[in-house]
Structure formats: structure tokens, C-alpha cells
Amino acid sequence: xxxxxxxRMAIDIGGTFTDTVLEANGKIIAxxxxxxxxxxxxxxxxxxxxRVMETSGHHLDEVSVFIHGTTLATNALIEKKGATVATVAxxxxxxxxxxxxxxxxxxxxxxxxxxxxxxxxxxxxTISERVSAExxxxxxxxxxxxxxxxxxxxxxGAKSIAICLMHSYANPSHEQRLKDAIAGxxxxxxxxxxxxxSPEAREFDRLCTTVANAYIQPLMGSYLLRLSEKFAAExxxxxxxxxxxxxxxCTLDTAARFPIRLxxxxxxxxxxxxxxxxxxxxxKEVLSFDMGGTTAKLCLIDKALPxxxxxxxxxxxxxxxxxxxxxxxxxxxxxIEIGAGGGSxxxxxxxxxxxxxxxSAGSEPGPVAFGxxxxxxxxxxxxxxxxxxxxxxxxxxxxxxxxxxxxxxLKRKVGNRIGLDAIESADGVGRIVxxxxxxxxxxxxxxxGKDLSERTMIAFGGNGPLHATRVARSAGVxxxxxxxxxxxxxxxxxxxxxxxxxxVRSRYTLLEHMDSDSINLLLNRMETDALSVxxxxxxxxxxxxxxxxxxxxxxxxxxxxxxxPDGSLADSDIPRLSDAFEKEYRRQYxxxxxxxxxxxxxxxxxxxxxxxxxxKSPGEMRENRPLAKQSHRILCDQDGVYKEADCFNRADLRPxxxxxxxxLVLEAQTTTLISSDFAAHVDxxxxxxxxxxxxxxx
Length: 698
Prior knowledge:
- The chain has 16 helices and 35 strands.
- Helix 1 (41-56) packs across helix 7 (203-233), helix 10 (379-385) packs across helix 11 and helix 10 (379-385) packs across helix 12.
- The strands form nine sheets. Strands 13, 14, 15, 20, 23, 24, 31, 34 and 35 form a nine-stranded mixed beta sheet that branches.
- A hairpin with a 5-residue loop joins strand 34 and strand 35.
- It is globular.
């Protein structure tokens, strides 16, 4: 038994399951997958923590690091369950949210549904003041105007405030003064200020980000307080660190101030895990595939670094169309997420077309086979009906499975509508959800200018290994890696994330006229601010710093991020930055534009603690053919014929073991399906590596 203070725990609350892992000395010693308790998510987290502690023989007071990620912020925005928000803008700019980008995301759709930006016009308040783009005060903010605004806030009934004044990124003094005045009059009212939440140019994006932060701030603040109190009562005495969308961690206090940075924090953990596996196995180009109970997430990873972005959209009115959601500007690991998980519901429309998702049965009531009141068949019901999930080993026996109930629901809700039996219905559901995920992967790759065919898929999540060969086949991927403990992969990824914070500031300049002294002053101030946040959770741990500039040709609407050299900038760096920009521009757009001036709009600084680099795989091992302890009858996903699949316990497999498909590899939180046209082996670090056979089905 380990001594006190040597354990690390990570908990990821998803839409269907809550995943918990416990690590000691670099090894996962216990894990659990429990149903998410939507009425009180902290209760599900406690349940998972108690189970891993009971399994390992430890107690919460021995945990020295606790990392948490949750879908609560994301779900509140998607399901519109946040606070009543009022906005405060500069007089004359009341309709920023209504005007948006002044364009339709689908030009010829006469029934176009506009994105819900959460704040109606009657709660869009203004105040007389004005700051220029350079930061000089053009119109002073008078006390009389502030007093009038306070009365309007009280009359609005708002429970949270979002302040976004013109050009406050250049001079935040008016926003800060207004924040202090509102806090003095309404001390219990949460206030989000754009110069703190998203201090960048582009007022619509900045306002949307601030509104989103204000919308979820009361909910997340109370949740984080309840969470810390519950775990403290159970004996936890270490700080709780929160996973962020950018792949780092922050303290509870930072998370409570900027809860918008927690959106998509769970999937970010999965991308961190996939990046680490890619580094260990020396994989240059990777497709991360994380399929849970509610959604599937796909991320492109190159040279062990996930693709990142500074903008994404929340709650799109049209799921796959850019511009149909609420734009948010925060550092985020870029991925595509679709409503395709184990709980995704299958249905037949009035035209007799079978569809799957995005509606999900979640954990309440869950799939029909769970026997918790679900009446509509799901992807998990389909997998159970086809034999891919063995009831006796599912979720370590904590969730009872009724295969007959799944088959009856498939026949009743699907088969009877389109003339299929239960198994044919299950096969149809499986094929549709697989094609949805493969199509999303192909689209994400094309939008990024990349090819999937040479990539290795790293699959994890409760349903990822079960669907990996089917998705890979459809997407044109021929090699798959299933890491150890894949069913709780995102939570495992939390354990490898650094404590980090990234800041972006707008400061416009032409590159050729860059004032290096003033830019160095700005970057140093940003680094100091970011470092102070990191020190709250990371103490005196060694840190890594990064700096970058967002550059474009003069007059263009979008920027390219270019890394800045180490140390202070000097005028002599201008030619080097110009060359770096044009090289990256050529890579993305085939050729630079001669004779165009280059301008810089934003500057970014990131500070993170150093993480231990992963050990490298020792390479291929001597081949061994383990004997299957049992077989199970499954419907072959390739030709639709029933076959006997060999079954192996993942815990019994050793490096060098080789398995021919069709086969099932069973473990505590998931099952890996090795299709007939795939073979698998265990590499030197315990990954299950699946490769497509050249001769197809045996």
C-alpha cells in the first residue's frame, strides 16, 4: 500500500457516464465507469471516487492531485439552462448580437433558424462612453450615466452581467470602473468583463464569449463550490484542478471566474492522451477517435501535437454549418463533435428513412437494454443485439443487460416501420452511425487540408474501441491503436495535462513598423499575468513559455498564428517573422501574395508547467498466439454473416500477442471489436494495435 500523498485521481463527467481513474507512480491502479447523475453531477463524481478507493484499498485523504473535467458547462449552453443575462455595451452599439456578422450562414434557406445568442434586445443595455482603437478616451464615463445604468440593471431582473465596451481590449479602465460600481450596488451579482474574458478585437465575438461566460458563471460557481465541499467532507485535502478546453489545467478559483474555458474540457483530455500515445509510439500523423455514450469526438494530431484553435461555435442551429452557432474565442483543442454515441437514439421518419442521433438516451433513462425506463432503441442496443457486447462483463457487472429487450425495441421502433427483423434493424443502426462518424472524420480532414489514409487512428472512450474497425474501414484508415484503459481515456489524459494558462491581447501594428519595445512590454505583462494564474495551482514547478503573433496580409479578415523567437523582440527579427509568415501562408494557401504588407492583430502568451515526456515504445515483440478462453457468436460487421468470435481478456494479453479477427477483447469499461478483415497485436507498451489485412475477410 502506498504512503499518503502519492496518489493522483482524475474524474471526467460525461453525458452518459462518469469516468474515474486512480494513479500511483505512473500506473493506473483502479478505474471506474459509473452512470452520470444529471440532477447532481457531484454525486456521480463521489460515487466513482468511492468505487476506485474501495477497489484499490485507499482513502481520499491519500490523494495528492485531483483533476476534474465536466460537460456541465457545455450542456448548460446547449440545453439553455444558464442564468438570465443582461449585457452592457457602449451607447449606439446595443444591437451587436442582432447584427452579428451581417450575413446568413445558409443564404437560400427561407426557413433559416438564427443562432440563439442568449440575450434578448430588452436586456441589451448601454452606457454613454467611448474609447478609441488606440486606447485613448474619447467620451468620459460620467457618474450620472452609471447611476442610470444601475437602475436599468435592477429593472431587467438579470442574474448575471456581461460587460463589453468598445475597444476595451486597448483600454479596460471604463469596464473596470463599471464592474466596481455594479459590484458595489449588487454584491451577489456575477459580473463578466470582456477585457478579462476575451480581450481581443472583433466586438461581436468578444461579446458572445463574455455572454457565454456570464450565462454559465452562476451555475458553474455553485457546482464547483458543492463539488469541493462534498469531496472535503469525504476526506480530500488537496486542491481540485479543472481541465480546460485548451488541454491544460487551472484552479477552482480561475474556473469559477472563467467557466467558459471549461467548455469541451472532457474531450480535451482525450486529445492529450492521444498525443501522448502518438509520442510514445512515434506516430507522426494521427486521428484521435473518442466515442462515448452521447457524442463522438475526432481530432487531428500531427507530430504528437493536437490541432488547436482560438475560436469555436457552441450550439449550432445547423449542426455541420459554420456560422450557425454562438462564436466563442478561447484557446481550444480543435475537434469535430457529432451526436453519435452509445446512447444515440435510432428512429424512422415519415418517409421511412432510418436515422441515428443526435438525440441521446444518456444515462437517464439510458438504452432499453439497461432496464432503467428507456423505450427507444440506441446504438448500444444495436451492439448488444449483434453480439458485440457480452452482458456478463459489461461495466464490470454493475449495469445489468437485457439483450431480448434491446431486440424487441429495435423490431418495434425500427423493423416494423421498414420491414426488417430485429437483427437487420440492429445492423442498419450500426452502419448508419458508423458512416456518420466516418463522414465527420473525412469532412474535418478536408477542412484542415489533410488526408486520412496515411493516419493511424487512436481509439478510446466507452464505445470507441467497439466501433473503431468499422469507422476506420469507412474512413479509409488501415491502422488503429487502442491504448491501455481506453474506456476511461479522457480521464487518463487529464493526468498528463500541464497546469497552464494562455492569454491573448489585441495590439494592431504593421510588421514593418513594429515598435519592439512596446510589444516586449505587452508580452512581458501578459507573461506575468499568465504565470500568476499557473503558480496558483502549480506552485514553484518549472514552467514552459510560448509566444506567438497572429498575422495576415493587410486587409484580410483572418490571421495565421506564427511562433515568436525566444527572448525579447528586436527590429532585426522583422525579416525573420516575415519569412515565417510567408512560409506558413504558402503551406496553407499554396503561394504568398507578393507586394502585400503584413499586419499583426493579436499577440498570445502561454505559460504551462513542465510535464514528464512519455517513454518510447521498445518496438515490435516476438509474436505469440494466445489461446482464446471462450468464443461468442456475433454478426460479422463486414458481410452480415454470423461467426464465432474468439474472446480474450485484455488483462491476460502480453506484449507480442497476436490475434486474428473476428475477435472480441474484453476489459472492465469497454470491448474492442477486431473485425474479420483486421488482425491485432500487443506492442511493447501495452497498446493493442489493429491492422487491416490485405486479403480481406478470412
